[in-house]
Amino acid sequence: MTLRTCLFCLLFATATGCSEPSTPADTTSASDVVQDTETDTVSDVPTDAVPEVLPDVPPDIAPDTSVTPVWGWISVIEWNDTCDQWNLKTKWLGGVRAQFATEPSWPRALPHTLGFMKPVATVGNCTLYDPGLMTEKCMTDCLCLDKGIECYNADETERWCGDDEMCVESDLDFHGICQALPAHYSVGTLSLQGLKQPLALTPDEFDRYMAPQLTNPDDLFDKGDVITATTSGGDLPPMTFTAKGVAPLDLITTDIERPKGAGKAVLVKWKTADPDARVQVAIQAGSHDPNPLAATILCDVPDSDGQVSIDGSLFDKAHVLSCNGQWLQKCSRVTRYTRDRHLAGGKEVELFVGSARNLKVLW
Questions:
Q1: Which residues are within 8 A (CB) of 105 and not within 5 positions of it... i.e. 6 or more apart?
Q2: In this structure, is residue 167 part of a structural domain?
Q3: Residue 91: Cβ-neighbour burial (10 angstroms; 0-12, 13-18, 19+)
């Protein structure tokens, strides 16, 4: 079956109804290097001049470039609605998991770990990220956003990519090719303390850390619980992270309709409950999973704000990046969270503790 026979899939790309959730939440850890940038006007950034986004680093916590570069995260996220990002190709089992690698990549990313994308526009507390897939060729046939439909290994004998690969654009007419993910690390045993169900996780053959069947994945911790994640070594020196449990997220806004045009905005609201936490909204565009992201609008504010305004100009740009709205099947999420971040070789590793709910987006 070729992409040309799958055009019926486009009929389902008019609404988005789930997602998992970029900037950080404050914790009491001295290693937290949060950047909280707020801008009142749209700032378009040339795509050929955008540096990789890293947090502001105080002089006394400067990156140690002598150590092995590590990008990665440990997630402890409760109250997750079902979404493809958690169940389909990646086979992640709920919100407790971890990954450590040399570089970010879409198949191994949380919705806010967007190091593989470039920030191209910011309005207020929200930034649009672009993976750079929407080339002129893509605007013609959209293969770049739906490579998973026809993506094969090198000798074209197997459809879909392996668990340690991702599909990338190729010069072939009807499908992409599989490419190995960035090199990844084992960190030995990952221990999580302070949860209602303490965990000790070991990696699979692809260095993915996934929790076993949890007693209650929607109730992992209570607000204020001190959660500690410790690695035992493996390929990297031992690491320790500490963050606090957050109050369960209770959304006032469960679905939104795309505002069209600059100056027209939509509000996403929630019931405030946790002055120590932050809330992020991740609106994602693109074809069905596991195909790559076309765009992400990421908003981040203190939980006490109770709402965030998302400008229509960001939706307009995301609509264009999704092949003029032909691929809009990704899941979007709102997450209340705290986190603890460390730098290793100039890259960021974090413990992310949160409570997440899906947000339905009508484009």
A1: 116, 166, 181, 182
A2: no
A3: exposed
Residue 257 lies in a domain: yes
What is the pLDDT, as a whole number, of residue 148?
65
CB contact set of 218 (below 8 Å; sequence gap of 6+): 78, 79, 80
Backbone angles phi, psi at 108, to 5 degrees: -120, 30
Q: In this structure, is residue 80 part of a structural domain?
A: yes
Give the distance, in angstroms, between the CA of residue 43 and the centroid of all CA atoms in the same chain: 22
Residue 61 CB contacts under 8 Å (≥ 6 apart), including other chains: 31, 33, 343
Query: Which pLDDT band holds residue 54 (cuts at 50, 70, 90)?
Result: very low
Distance CA 174, CA 38 (A): 42
pLDDT at 48: 36
- Give Dmax (Cα) for the chain: 57
List the structure tokens of 183: 């090199």
Burial 62-80 (b: 16+ CB within 10 A, else e): ebeeeeeebbbbbbbbbbb
Angle at 306 between CA 319 and CA 317, to 5 degrees: 10
**C-alpha neighbours within 13 Å on the C-beta side of residue 31:** 16
- What's the structural domain count of the chain? 1
| Residue 169 belongs to some domain of the structure | no
Residues 90-126 pLDDT 10s: 455 568 999 999 999 988 999 999 999 999 999 999 9
Predicted confidence (pLDDT) at residue 152 exceeds the cutoff of 90: no
pTM of the model: 0.80
Give the tens place of pLDDT for each residue, 239-277.
Answer: 999 999 999 999 999 999 999 999 999 999 999 999 999
Alpha helices in 53-135 (DSSP H): 84-87
Lowest mean pLDDT among 16-25, 258-267, 330-339: 16-25
Q: Among 128, 116, 113, which Cα is nearest to 322's?
A: 128
Contact 55, 341 (CB under 8 A): yes
Domain that holds residue 45: 11-143+183-362
